[in-house]
């Protein structure tokens, strides 16, 4: 087994793309985070890039786009020890990893052996793929968000990260992340009642026929009216109409409301993933 590190995203993507294209749904994070960066001002906003080779064939890949965790969806579990050791050299203060539960936990165990630092699962998530879309009957309508909506969406995004993902973003950081996503081709829909925004969702542009819906958020005072179902279904339809053959989303495993909502409108479970925090010692 041979590991190759890359400093250029274009070079890495040319080598690693077949790994991720093999299963677009399973590799949604890599596809949405990397290919849309090419040719944009964000192409160099990447961290560690590693490909795994056996007998001159590429068999795996990992990547990081700080501040996000090391992405492990393309890592065979047999390569975990070698990649963990390489990451100890390249980024000894690596804060977190994300990937299929078994791979993420195996990496965390190997990291603990190498570093002496315990780990914990911050959040378990379930990947869903859209089957047949079943739009709900919900009052209101969707529209594409524009520049005039950035301030509101930045505030909602900040609240979403805090309340759903447990991540404390400043408002300026939230806006910067939103603008970066828009520059990379993401579309945001707002669900409105009489011209008032009451919910939102976003979807990445299709890469290899795959688009991911995320940032489904309804302010507390507007919940319980089905707006999240409405905007998610509308966002899913938008993705299909924009050329996606595979539409996916993640839910937090221990949130029964969101898991039920998405299954009712046609999403089916694929597999579970884990966001694992490293360096959890004193």
Describe the structure.
With 282 residues, this protein is of the alpha+beta class. Strand 8 and strand 9 form a beta hairpin. It has helices at residues 9-21, 28-34, 80-90, 101-115, 150-163, 171-183, 227-241, 256-264, and strands at 2-6, 49-54, 57-63, 70-71, 96-100, 120-130, 141-144, 187-193, 196-203, 210-217, 246-252, 267-277.
Secondary structure elements and pairings:
Blueprint: E1 2-6, H1 9-21, H2 28-34, E2 49-54, E3 57-63, E4 70-71, H3 80-90, E5 96-100, H4 101-115, E6 120-130, E7 141-144, H5 150-163, H6 171-183, E8 187-193, E9 196-203, E10 210-217, H7 227-241, E11 246-252, H8 256-264, E12 267-277
Parallel strand pairs: 4-5, 10-11
Antiparallel strand pairs: 1-2, 2-3, 5-12, 6-11, 6-12, 7-8, 8-9, 9-10
Helix pairs in contact: 1-2, 3-4, 5-6
